[in-house]
Specification:
The protein is of the alpha/beta class. The protein has a seven-stranded mixed beta sheet with strand order 2-6-5-3-4-9-8, sandwiched between helices. Strands 20-21-24-25-26-19-27 form a seven-stranded antiparallel beta sheet. A five-stranded mixed beta sheet has the order 11-10-12-13-14, sandwiched between helices. Strand 12 (271-275) and strand 13 (282-286) form a beta hairpin. The termini are far apart.
């Protein structure tokens, strides 16, 4: 029997492409999560009796919202809910399940790489039938509905046992607890040469994988240890914890510092990798060699044909605008189209659905392909393993060979956090007004070739996305990009992306900060960073 629960709207339930993210205590308010889930069900496209995919990254409050969502789904006419065992479902695995079982969409409960726990973050994201994040038209409709919602629907039913595989009936709704790890591992086996990787493992190839006490743990343990034969213990922090062990599950040099210490130890294993809270990001580090996400995209694209799933070649390569142009040079050499898109996986989704691109990536550690419609951390790790196994080469040797052929894009991102919004806006306004006068100007040895505010015309749906960030391109292929990221109670974050291109035959084995010193000075002179912000150094360098 469907029961109607009267409610009133909450302000601020505006989802981005990464969904609605707030503190757990916000989601624990009466009707807060229920309002949002009901708003999703009120507006998304589906036929009666549709299938919904449901799960999350295991963070605190995950199970509570899953149980409530099952009852709301039953009251809203869904025919089936597929939920990951234990409520666990990585973001790429959820995309795979939506696509494999023909679901109308899915709810992913995650705040990605943000911390978890009673006082930390929670999130809900809706993915559409292609397995990708809901486009802006859908998220706007959801937000609009949250502003007028006056009730949510539910049924009276006990909680479902999320830890036992099988089916349960909830008021006419079939709830099936599935082994999403097996589904995902099967997909990976169809793409990669597991035999070649196993042979390398048997020959003594060693690895360290840090799951960061997050969702990738069960997937990595099954694939790396159980199917590929890496020794037990290769996967570290492999049990998902509600608070990620008190750590920040973001795979970078700061939060994965233990992995970096392992990989730069004299006795380092051959290969190191990590993933984030919901499993869609990756970190790649060889013995004594860190690979930036921008370089990883380029190196994977250049060698992807060595994996069975990509043996026929790529249809195209896509990267977000702030990501380095290293992949562009690979695309040019392979005679492939290369797409420069705004930040946001939905732009890649359009290209993937249209068959215009095969591999995509962004500087913030997300890489993926047309096998799903999300970035996929473990997929990137397995493609690296496949390439190294076939090439019988170290990460460092592969990187050096790549740079010798294509040149090297030295790259860093400088974040100036919690700036007064007025100051940040003034900096960007002045920078935008100076764009017509910048070409031809010199800063030290650097001469500006062109400058613009990036605008993207989507070749698939014809939409235009403007004001995506200021690009300053120099003669010779180096560049600086300026973007504001987010405003609110803590002001704005200015992100400055610095990229120096060193051609093949040039200085290819230097420390990145040394190679970017001239660009850092030029960026300050061009944008007046110190003058506008009072800051003489960034808060975070990645």
């Amino acid at each position: 029997m469907t029961r109607t629960v009267p409610s009133t709207p909450y302000s601020g339930q505006k989802p981005g492409t990464s969904g609605l993210r707030k503190k757990v205590k916000v989601f624990q308010q009466p009707n807060y999560a229920e309002n949002f889930v009901q708003a999703v069900f009120d507006v998304v496209e589906r036929v009666p009796g549709s299938t919904l995919v449901l799960g999350g990254d295991g963070r605190y409050h995950n199970r509570t919202v899953i149980q409530q969502t099952i009852r709301i789904a039953a009251a809203n006419g869904y025919g089936k809910v597929l939920v990951g065992k234990g409520g666990i479902l990585s973001t790429p695995a959820a995309s795979n399940v939506i696509r494999k079982y023909g679901a109308s969409g899915g709810l992913i409960l995650s705040a990605s790489h943000n911390p978890g726990g009673p006082d930390e973050d929670f999130g809900i994201k809706y993915n559409i039938a292609n397995g990708g994040p809901a486009p802006e038209g859908v998220t706007e409709a959801i937000y609009s509905r949250t502003q007028t919602i006056d009730r949510w629907l539910t049924v009276d039913a006990p909680d479902v046992d999320l830890d036992t595989l099988g089916q349960t009936q909830v008021s006419g709704l079939t709830v099936e607890v599935i082994d999403s790890v097996a589904d995902y591992a099967e997909l990976m086996e169809s793409l990669f040469d597991f035999n070649a990787i196993r042979s390398q493992v048997h020959a003594g190839f060693t690895m360290a994988f840090d799951a960061m006490s997050a969702v990738t743990g069960p997937y990595a343990t099954e694939i790396l240890e159980n199917r590929l034969g890496f020794p037990k213990g290769t996967v570290r922090n492999g049990v998902p914890l509600e608070d990620f062990g008190g750590h920040h599950p973001d795979p970078n040099m700061v939060h994965a510092h233990e992995l970096f210490e392992t990989m730069f130890d004299p006795q380092a294993p051959d290969f190191g990798a990590a993933s984030d809270g919901d499993g869609d990001r990756n970190l790649i580090v060889g013995r004594h060699r860190f690979i930036t996400p921008s370089d990883s995209l380029a190196m994977l694209a250049a060698n992807a044909h060595l994996a069975p799933g990509y043996a026929a070649g790529l249809k195209g390569i896509a990267r977000s605008m702030p990501t380095s142009a290293a992949a562009d040079r690979v695309a040019e050499a392979l005679g492939l189209p290369c797409f420069e898109t705004p930040t946001g996986w939905k732009f890649f989704g359009n290209l993937l659905d249209a068959g215009m691109a095969t591999i995509c990536g962004e500087e913030s550690a997300g890489t993926g392909s047309d096998h799903v419609r999300e970035k996929d951390g473990l997929w990137a790790v397995l493609l690296w393993l496949n390439i190294l196994a076939v090439r019988k080469i170290s990460v460092d040797a592969l990187a050096r060979e790549h740079w010798a052929k294509f040149g090297r894009n030295y790259y860093a991102r400088h974040d100036y956090e919690a700036l007064p919004t007025d100051n940040a806006d003034a900096l960007m306004a002045e920078l935008n007004s100076s764009l017509p006068t910048l070409p031809g100007k010199s800063f030290g040895s650097l001469e500006i070739a062109q400058a613009d505010n990036f605008s993207y015309l989507d070749p698939v749906d014809g939409s235009t996305s403007s004001n995506q960030g200021v690009r300053v391109m120099f003669v010779g292929g180096s560049r600086v990009v300026f973007r504001l990221s987010g405003t609110g109670t803590e002001g704005a974050t200015l992100r400055v992306y610095l990229e120096r291109y060193e051609p093949a035959g040039g200085d290819l084995d230097r420390e990145t900060p040394d190679m970017l010193a001239d660009l850092i000075s030029a960026a300050d002179a061009i944008a007046g960073i110190t003058r506008h912000t009072g800051r003489t150094a960034p808060d975070v360098v990645t």
